[in-house]
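Workshop exercise sheet. Pairs work together: one partner reads the sequence aloud, the other fills in the structure field after running the prediction. Swap roles for the next sheet.
Pair: D.N. / O.F.
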Amino acid sequence: MTLSMYVDTERWQAHQRALLAEFPGLVPVAKGNGYGFGNVRLAEEAARLGSPMLAVGTAAEAAAVAGAFPGDLLVLTPYRAGEPDAGLPAGRVVRTVAHAEVLAALPAGSRVVVECMTSMRRHGVAPADLPRLSTGHLELEGFALHLPLDRPDGSDPVAECAQWVRAIAAAGLPTRTVYLSHLGAKDVARLGLLFPDTVFRSRIGTRLWLGDHEALQSRATVLDVTPVARGDRYGYRQHKAPSDGHLLVVTGGTAHGVGLEAPKYVHGVVPRAKGLARAGLATVNRTLSPYLWEGRQLWFAEPPHMQVSILFLPGEAKPPAVGDELVLQVRHTTTHFDRVADRRSADRQAA
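Structure field:
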């Protein structure tokens, strides 16, 4: 009885191949919870795709996937002076550096990518830092430009990237390779025309692994079904049932990430109104769950438990049976599945 992610493997892998064709030199990214798959599984997929490099979030993640991926491992989190490298495969790790003074702290021969301070303003070297970068004792693999997702000011991301490439060249530094994040294929192609001697390599995770929504489906197992009458008390807090119906105990709780939500940036009047409506319902203990039964989104009967959730199915609707599976709509980057099950396209259609 598990929380499962079913993968239409043929379709999922076809999407990966199509994206590699769209972004020549693409660097797959596997970090955090591995986008729901786990980083080792994604490292194996990147190896199958023939990618020479895999980007990971941290040095610990690099060590964890080194056995599953034979190529270079690019650590995206900037290196901190004195940080231990225990367990990292010698010669295969490329460290990101975001501050000029950190370069001197790296051992001779270390492979590095220098991150630039783009309009993201998260971290990176400033244009004024470029002439004083001391990389003589290091293997400089290239520069990285991590760009914002949205541009409400209408600015051109290609113009920003071009400005950085010119600044790097003006500082006497090599522009052979520039790593990009959050730039579309057409914009990458525009950059290639502007700088034909520079290789632009896109680092992509979400779109590579989760870009084809129809290839993935999340399902939870029904563990128990209990009929209740209006007014019956239930659960840890002994709430009253609002009407006749059924309580469904299903797999998936806070340990899986169910019911946990990262803050979202809201655009427009309608999304704001929906947010206010959800907040108002939450004040009277009414919260929609991500679980669906026969196309109907169900309410949490109470906040999710650690490994299960209790849902309320109202009225005379026919309840599922123990062992049935409910579809649920969850954010893969915050969900830890009990298993990832591969299916062929024909198997999924039959299910």
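Discussion prompt: The longest strand covers residues 216-228. What would you look at next?
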